[in-house]
Every structure is written in C-alpha cells, then in structure tokens.
C-alpha cells in the first residue's frame, strides 16, 4: 500500500496550507498627514490624511485613475510626495526632514501582476526579500511561508509552471515572509477568474489576520472592499470622500457619489419639506432638509417591494430578466416619467404587462441635499 503524505496531497489539489501557521509580525501604525502628490504638475493625490491602525486591513477603493495606486506608492516610498508626511509608528519615513527608500520602511509589497522573477525558482523568489538573513534561516522562513499558502511542494519549480492562482499565492508568501509590519497590496485578486477569487480572498484574509500585519489593499471592486476591509477609504479625484466601515458607507453614504458606488440606484424626483421629502412613493424622513432645498432621492432596486394592485403606488411590469439569484424587473410607475428597476427574489410570478402595487423599504431610500459645487 502506498502512503500519501496528506500535506502534499492537499497541495496537489490546489489547497492552501494549514490555518494558523503563518508567522506573526509586530504590526505598525501607518499615517498619512496632509499628503499631496502630482505627476509633473498634474495633481494625483490631494491633501490626504489617513491613519491605518496596527493590524487593520484598510481597503482603498475608487474608480480607475482616482489616485489609489499613487497613495500606495507614496506609503512604499516608490513615489515622493509634494507636500505632507508619511509616518510609520509615528516616525517620519517620507517628508520634509527625511525620505526612506522602500527597503528601509519595513513594508511588504504585492502587485497586481505578482512581479515574480521568471528566472528564479519559487523558493528563490520568496527568499529574495530575506537576503539580510543567513541562507539556511531564510530558506526555512521561505518554506514556512510557502507551506502556509499550500505550495511547499513546488519550491524548486519556476513561476511559468504555475497557474495564475498559484503565482498569486507565491507573491503573497514572498510579501509575508520577511514579516513586514505593513503590507501594501495593489489589486492582488484582479488577475484571478471569478470562480477562484472568493476562496482566494478568504484565504488571503486569514493569512493577513495570522500575520497581524497592518494592510492597505487597493481595489476598484466595492464587494471586495466590503469583504476584506475592516474599514474602507473611498477615493475620488485624489481625495478621500468617505472613510468608515462597510456598514457605514453602505447605509450612511456621505453623498450620492458614495451611494452610487455601492449600489445601482433609481433616482427620482422629491419635494423637500421641513425634515422630510415627498415622493410618488410617499413621504420620507430627511433630517436637516428644509423646504425649498434641492435634493436627490435615490431608491435601491433591492428595496422595491411588489404586490397586488392597490398595495402601494400603481405600476406595470415592462421588462423582466432572470439574472441568477434575483429577477431584474423594469417598472412603469404612475406619476413618474421614467422607469425604475427592482431586484426581486422569485420574480417569475410577475409577468410583463402585469399591473402591480409598488412600495419601497425605507432602509433603501437615500436622500441627499444636492451638491451644486
Ligand atoms: N507615471 C505616471 N505619470 C503620469 N501620470 C500618472 C502616472 N501614474 C498615474 N498617473 C495619473 O495619476 C492619476 C492617478 O493614478 P493612479 O494610478 O494612482 O490611480 P488608480 O486609482 O490607482 O487607478 P487604476 O485603478 O487605474 O490603477 C491618474 O490620472 C493617472 O492617469
């Protein structure tokens, strides 16, 4: 009978290593103090102040070109800011009085393309950040990091022999092996196909928790930011628009931009009263709003409730598409000159042309004073 080493078998099946075995680090506090940056006079980061607490995973979220990568590069010391300071554990690493290069900042970096050296074996790639150690010690640390990501059995292979998902795990092992106090990750999952992405995110998060490193993770995907981040910093045009937990950004968005980022929205007319707003679906509380204010009222499609005619505002089903867990239903609404969209579970019972009554869950109504700046 052949005995199969269960660890190797798991690795061959593409599994990650044993949870709880990643080496822990001493997490650092990373702070940006009024940091600005430009590329040859064109501003990219504008007056950003932000503190990432020890052991925290902070997601920098935003559309392409809003300055996320630049902010990460400023933390790493790959770019130099035009104003402000970067501090690690209250010590200035980038600012008027000194500027430390990346290798002196005690940070780990992980890029979107993994940036593995093709001519080095997997173990040598991981040992690259451990050159300051004695070779035997470096090899032991590198193997331990590789085992944690389930790739100890591939140490002598070369990157081209690995799948995209496996290369991502090597890049993670290389980033954590030197036990950095701060880990900076730029879109680390964007090269993976959807099927893999969820499990890789979960495994990566559990590795991050074990290492206890402070982490900034750049992403343009709101769902990824909500899954991964203790807090999210949403960026727009080089500045932070809102900083908070996923719950805060989703349920108490600072403005329409933030709300639109996290959900598709139906934007409808509303008439402002004193502390409330009147719409075709009824009156909603809107603290701080005064009669005469210009306002934007938005309804999340998942908050639209359909019932029998007479149960709420009169409407008619115009279109219906099944998209997996829900049906997307377009509705004509009495008194509105444009259709609205609803996401309905078991929506198959609503046929095109059917008359319905429409109500809205108040939790999915968002009211903002219009920003006319
Ligand atoms: N090396 C560069 N030279 C000149 N301009 C640059 C350079 N790198 C970025 N920019 C510009 O700076 C702004 C911020 O870019 P940055 O890459 O930080 O944004 P991002 O949010 O990370 O975008 P993406 O998600 O597309 O990477 C953009 O307008 C971009 O075009």
From TrEMBL:
Q: Name one Pfam family in it.
A: ABC_tran
What does the record list as GO biological process? quaternary ammonium group transport
**Keyword check for Signal:** no
- Which CDD domains does the UniProt entry name for this protein? ABC_Carb_Solutes_like
Provide this UniProt record's keywords sorted from A to Z: ATP-binding, Cell membrane, Ion transport, Iron, Iron transport, Membrane, Nucleotide-binding, Transport
Ranges for the ABC transporter domain? 30-262
Has the keyword Lipoprotein been applied to this entry? Answer: no
Q: Name one GO cellular component term.
A: membrane
Q: Name one GO molecular function term.
A: ATP binding
Family from the record: Belongs to the ABC transporter superfamily.
Among PANTHER family, the record links this protein to: SPERMIDINE/PUTRESCINE IMPORT ATP-BINDING PROTEIN POTA (PTHR42781), SPERMIDINE_PUTRESCINE IMPORT ATP-BINDING PROTEIN POTA (PTHR42781:SF4)
Question: What is this protein called in UniProt?
Answer: ATP-binding cassette domain-containing protein
Per the UniProt record, the source organism is: Stappia sediminis
